[in-house]
């Protein structure tokens, strides 16, 4: 069995490892256009901020280890340019510039996603970077080491930009964040987004929402971003304003695409062609709340879907339920977490949402060191179902969100969720967990 | 409507508050034999250890506030000695030694549980205490302040003893723990209990399991505990070897009792007598995993069941699903959490359990400060259901257990649980949450 994998990060390498374990005699080939495989992309903002850590420490497993210990044929610097679905082969250009073709019995597209920078003048200037892969991370860390960066401009206010804002502040660099949209974290309940805004501003991060981006200029040894009616200056620009799935290969081969142009897959990760799978950030997924297709590129899904393909390419029948969109990030002193859908998304999917937002504490009454936790919940008036949860707080948020995520997978209604027996001890929360307090309040709204 | 409540802690005061909100014209009376209402009993070990905190700070709401702000008639020092179910009244002795009787339309028994000390010679000596109510807490804090306690002997190794071991070590006091049973935390997976044992011993706590308790003696200004073949000396003894429900009133009135002698209640908290409810530590509960009756006295259940009675006594119909037995405690540098049932309990309830124990980390690959987390899971080979989870780790355990607790409430099978979309970011865990790694391993066992 010839199993060819395009892309050597989380999804691709999970699939390769799993296939070799399940079917040791399989010929497993990974074709990676870059020179890194199997690294922790999510760790990059932290490694950039820490003088003690090299970017190389983010590599979980080197290509050589996959070759020598697992018998996976990993080809680096190897760019796949097309798929001949009729003949069952991929073709492209290898590291040394030669054309190659490689036949497959099963093919996995694990091509990931790309950071999108504005297609505007000046975004090719030195000191302007995006952050998506390890090579980007190395360039940024190197740039910060070699230049006296006093002030950075971050485009976009998504979680990567927010994590980078923390990293740069840790390094003593001034940070200005700018985006065309009018609101910080528009998907979030306003009362929670406000806590994040306060945290950023109290830590000296300047926020400029509602500024259209016009161009970048280099002037007087500085970068100047012309945006809205004014301009911002800095020594470094992080230019990622979003991500998009790398689905060109799939589109060119005539495979179906799903939301946001991601490769459409069924619950076994099979594309519209029976010998071709897609997994990781390039593929779509079912959402466990809406039960419809969505595109939410996150690391756990990449690993899990890659692993499933490793099984299925070797004759398995692993079916994945889908994603709840659970995610967490830290921004300075606050943990920010979400799972499921918000009220706007709920309306789009035909629900009749009710929402609450409550404030609670991270430790018991009178226990020292307690910090505020704010919880927003969304439920459906029609069915009583829990649809989503969001949380912001100084501690105790990152893992708390998982209780709501499991409830979403189980299709639990708010009443049942409000009755769950959650852990209590004074150092870890109030007797009524913040999620339970919020669920009780939401229940009143659903019943009224 | 005359609503009489016996006992003024979590369950009793929750019921009183709820009833007055639901039916402001109700005559709500709380008869409390002690002089404290509505305090955080679980906070006592922490307040004892902290010179900056008074025990009084654990009081969430004073009796006066209940009287003046909520119109609840709170009677302190008022001991209820019997229930005349025929005439619908309770009788007893009030604070000033007078007999009283009080008629009710609805009665709530919220009499709590008591710490059990050995009925052996010497346990009435000065310096020998149990810790269950706030008066005990005050006595202990006072004793430690007034005496030069260098070494304490703790009987029993349950969570209160373990929290007190931490408190006493924080105060610089040597601690020896002794129990007749052969094992520390016998309900816990051995690989997890071992981590707790190491944590205790590395922090200078001496452990003496398997020692039968014979008697206490006062000798040379010290207390000596004669136990097993030897003896232990100290200046202070915490003598609680367990807890039992305070169900004498209910038993004398002919009400049905459940497991461990707790007052038997249905899902509305009604006892075998239609006008009498029981809630909190004195009452039993349905277990959401075994679906049978159990007695697990914990603070959230006390609050929740009291609140339900407040509704139901005023004509409501709140039904409680039951408990999963979710709990967490901290012992020195480790968080210890559990939910559901262990393999032995699973067998008792007719399941065919499979168990796994895995080690994972509290932060992502390469992220500084990661600590070990060990997870044990129990599943049923017959149905594939998840039955229980236990966790020990240096951080990230207390709230993580809640994801498993929700899965138990939902009756989720291990396969579905292994597919849940849990939050990931490098400061908070590995990509595969420790619970997911454990679920994957358990799935292999269930499928083999």
Properties at a glance:
FAD/NAD(P)-binding domain, homodimer, five-stranded parallel β-sheet, 448 residues, alpha/beta
Describe this structure in words.
- Two copies of one chain form a homodimer.
- By secondary structure, the first copy, chain A, is an alpha/beta fold.
- The first copy, chain A, folds into three domains: 2-42 and 52-113 and 243-313, FAD/NAD(P)-binding domain, CATH 3.50.50; 117-238, FAD/NAD(P)-binding domain (3-Layer(bba) Sandwich); 327-447, FAD/NAD(P)-binding domain, CATH 3.50.50.60.
- Chain A contains twelve helices and 25 strands.
- The first copy, chain A, has a five-stranded parallel beta sheet with strand order 3-2-1-7-18.
- In chain A, a hairpin with a 6-residue loop joins strand 19 and strand 20.
- Chain A starts with a strand and ends with a helix.
- The mean pLDDT of chain A is 96.
- At the A-B interface, helix 8, strand 21, strand 22 and helix 10 of A face helix 8, strand 21, strand 22 and helix 10 of B.
What's the overall geometry of chain A? globular
Distance between the termini of chain A: 60 Å
What's the arrangement of strands in the largest beta sheet of chain A? Answer: 3-2-1-7-18
Tell me the structural class of chain A: alpha/beta
CATH H-level superfamily of the largest domain in chain A: FAD/NAD(P)-binding domain
Radius of gyration of chain A over all CA atoms, rounded: 23 Å
Poorly predicted runs of 5 or more residues of chain A: none
Q: Report the helical percentage of chain A.
A: 25-40%
Number of distinct helices of chain A? 12
Strand content of chain A: 25-35%
The CATH architecture of the largest domain in chain A would be: 3-Layer(bba) Sandwich
**Quaternary state, please?**
homodimer
Largest sheet of chain A: 5 strands, parallel
Number of domains of chain A: 3
Largest interface: A-B, 70 and 70 residues
Number of strands of chain A: 25
Mean pLDDT of chain A: 96
CATH topology of the largest domain in chain A: FAD/NAD(P)-binding domain
CATH class of the largest domain in chain A: Alpha Beta
């Amino acid at each position: 069995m010839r199993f060819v994998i395009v892309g050597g990060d989380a999804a691709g390498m999970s699939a390769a490892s799993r296939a070799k374990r399940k079917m040791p005699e399989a010929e497993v080939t990974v074709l990676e256009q870059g020179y890194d495989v199997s690294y922790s992309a999510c760790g990059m903002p932290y490694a950039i901020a820490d003088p003690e850590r090299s970017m190389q420490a983010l590599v979980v497993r080197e290509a050589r280890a996959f070759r020598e210990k697992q018998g996976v044929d990993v080809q680096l610097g190897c760019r796949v340019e097309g798929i001949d679905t009729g003949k069952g082969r991929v073709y492209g250009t290898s590291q040394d510039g030669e054309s190659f073709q490689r036949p497959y019995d099963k093919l996995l597209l694990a091509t990931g996603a790309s950071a999108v920078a504005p297609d505007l003048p000046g975004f090719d200037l030195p000191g302007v970077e995006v952050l998506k892969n390890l090579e980007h991370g190395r360039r940024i860390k190197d740039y910060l080491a070699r230049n006296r960066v006093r002030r950075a401009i971050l485009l976009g206010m998504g979680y990567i930009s927010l994590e980078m804002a923390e990293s740069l502040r840790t390094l003593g660099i001034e940070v200005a964040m700018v985006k065309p949209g009018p609101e910080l974290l528009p998907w979030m309940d306003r009362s929670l987004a406000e806590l994040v805004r306060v945290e950023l501003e109290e830590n000296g991060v300047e926020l400029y929402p509602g500024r259209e981006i016009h161009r970048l200029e280099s002037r007087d040894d500085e970068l100047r971003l012309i945006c809205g009616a004014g301009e911002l200056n800095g020594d470094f620009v992080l230019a990622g304003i979003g991500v998009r799935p790398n689905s060109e290969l799939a589109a060119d081969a005539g495979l179906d695409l799903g939301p946001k142009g991601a490769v459409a897959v069924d619950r076994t990760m099979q594309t519209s062609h029976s010998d071709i799978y897609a997994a990781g950030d390039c593929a779509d997924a079912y959402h466990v709340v809406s039960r419809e297709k969505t595109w939410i590129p996150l690391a756990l899904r990449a690993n899990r879907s890659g692993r499933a393909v490793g099984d299925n390419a070797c004759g398995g029948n692993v079916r994945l339920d889908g994603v709840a969109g659970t995610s967490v990030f830290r921004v300075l002193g606050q943990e920010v977490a979400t799972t499921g859908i918000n009220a706007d998304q709920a309306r789009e999917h035909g629900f009749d949402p009710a929402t609450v937002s409550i404030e609670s504490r991270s430790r018991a009454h009178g226990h020292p060191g307690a910090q505020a936790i704010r919880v927003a919940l969304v439920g459906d008036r029609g069915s009583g179902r829990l649809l989503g949860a969001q949380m912001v707080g100084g501690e105790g948020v990152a893992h708390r969100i998982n209780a709501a995520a499991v409830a979403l997978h189980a299709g639990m209604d708010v009443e049942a969720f409000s009755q769950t027996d959650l852990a209590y001890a004074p150092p870890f929360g109030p007797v009524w967990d913040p999620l339970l307090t919020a669920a009780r309040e939401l229940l009143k709204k659903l019943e009224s």
